[in-house]
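EI: anyone free to look at a 294-residue chain?
SC: sure, send it
EI:
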Amino acid sequence: MSNKPSRRTAIKNIFTGSAALAAGASLSSFSSDMKPSNPPLKGNINHSACRWCYNDIPLEQLCAAGKEIGLVGIDLVGPKDWPTLKNYNLISTMCNGAEISLAKGWNDKQYHAKLISNYTEHIDLVAKAGYTNLFCASGNRNGMDDETGLQNCAEGLKQIMAQAEKNGVIIVMELLNSKVNHKDYMCDRSAWGVELCKRIGSPNFKLLYDIYHMQIDEGDVISTIRSYNSYFGHYHTGGVPGRNEIDETQELYYPAIMKAIHATGYKGYVAQEFIPKAVDKIDSLRKAVQICDI
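SC: here you go
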């Protein structure tokens, strides 16, 4: 009798071996002690993430993870935390701390004296740290009409623009939706913000185009970016609806939006500003950066 294995046995062995190899590969791919891979970023987008979305994660840990992911900085970080960012060779891509609040802003003259004092101090701090962007807000309407708001904002902001220009600091007003998250906020339309930029007439005053907020209040995101990009100095992301992950669970297609931003020649920062629903928030951030890395 021949000792050679039968054809049936040989085929069985092939399938058994293949299954074992596949199982081994699958197990190794999902091994808990393996770190998720971070493919090299393409360099077309300067990625950042907003600090407040990860407030339950210590800043040191967020910085370490952000550096590994490929972030250039962390958004909405004030002077007291800048040393921590510098320890990880990250920057404050959008500095804050000079504003009173989102509701009490430049559209109300009663706050001008305080705001001018705050921004005079912070412009120097931002410049000394080697940063560029400083956040500001319009404030709520409280019954105020658009024209009065424009006049008041321009009057107040013009008083700090010479200092901003001298120090190379960009004052950036955020566009926020007044439909869902920030009821009564005045700077809730791109056209209003652009008109304010024109009235101030300084290259050191720009708008923060928050994609999440503007999708809610006006839509037409890519067309708006193409039309008004010269007035936009910063971008924020967020899934619509819900302000969660920017993946296939929401209505915006971020790769196309990022391509539109890149096509304008934009060299600034795009900061992830979504609230992670997943248990692993850092992994959600990692995935969002990959989605936006066109």
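EI: Confidence is low (pLDDT under 50) at residues 1-34.
SC: 👍
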